[in-house]
């Protein structure tokens, strides 16, 4: 949990809270972009210390949350043949999910430079792309939107193209 708390309390992330009301009242850029002039991913790409903290934070959150989902929601993934993790990084979440649910074929989806570094894993296919263009087809999509601490799990058939919902 340490890296997660350190990331959330880092000056770069704390500064964005000052832009929250402006973000809620207008339709402008995200609070992070309004504060730093670029999105979170571009920002961490140019800041190695924050990038390391960000990566560790994502992985530590996955290690904490995924067992909770698997143990706390039995049967949730029953009947699914394939599952895509959107923004899955190096595949930490998908690794844990296919280990717990050995009938699932996992697709770990993230930007091409991210998945190009992801270590190979049995029953996990790494796919590079941009989620704002399209998302690989699977029976369900898993999105862990860490920054806002929300977890969405969509069941049902996904069409390629995530913008429509
Ligand atoms: C964090 O992960 C991204 C994506 O895998 C990678 O490009 C970047 O180099 C990592 N950052 C550090 C500091 O290792
Ligand atoms: C994935 O990245 C996280 C954060 O950098 C790291 O803790 C974890 O060991 C990596 N997993 C693999 C399988 O390389």
Automatic annotation (TrEMBL):
Gene3D superfamilies: Vaccinia Virus protein VP39 (3.40.50.150). One of its GO terms (molecular function) is O-methyltransferase activity. SUPFAM superfamilies: S-adenosyl-L-methionine-dependent methyltransferases (SSF53335). Residues 1-22 form the signal peptide. InterPro entries: COMT-like, COMT_C, SAM-dependent_MTases_sf. The keyword Lyase does not apply. It comes from the Eukaryota. Keywords: Methyltransferase, S-adenosyl-L-methionine, Signal, Transferase. GO terms for biological process: methylation. Residues 17-146 form the O-methyltransferase C-terminal domain. This is O-methyltransferase family protein. The lineage of its organism: Eukaryota, Viridiplantae, Streptophyta, Embryophyta, Tracheophyta.
């Amino acid at each position: 949990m340490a890296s997660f708390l350190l990331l959330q309390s880092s000056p770069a992330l704390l500064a964005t809270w000052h832009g929250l009301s402006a973000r809620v009242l207008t339709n402008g850029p995200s609070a992070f972009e309004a504060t730093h002039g670029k999105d979170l991913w571009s920002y961490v790409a140019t800041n190695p210390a924050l990038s390391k903290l960000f990566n560790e934070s994502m992985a530590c959150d996955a290690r904490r949350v995924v067992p909770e989902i698997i143990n706390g929601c039995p049967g949730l993934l029953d009947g699914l043949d394939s599952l895509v993790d959107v923004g899955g990084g190096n595949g930490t979440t998908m690794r844990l999910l296919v280990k717990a649910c050995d009938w699932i074929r996992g697709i770990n989806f993230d930007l091409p430079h991210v998945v190009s570094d992801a270590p190979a894993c049995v029953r996990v296919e790494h796919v590079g792309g941009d989620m704002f263009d399209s998302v690989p087809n699977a029976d369900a999509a898993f999105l862990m939107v860490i920054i806002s601490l929300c977890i969405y799990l969509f069941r049902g058939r996904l069409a390629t193209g995530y913008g429509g919902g």
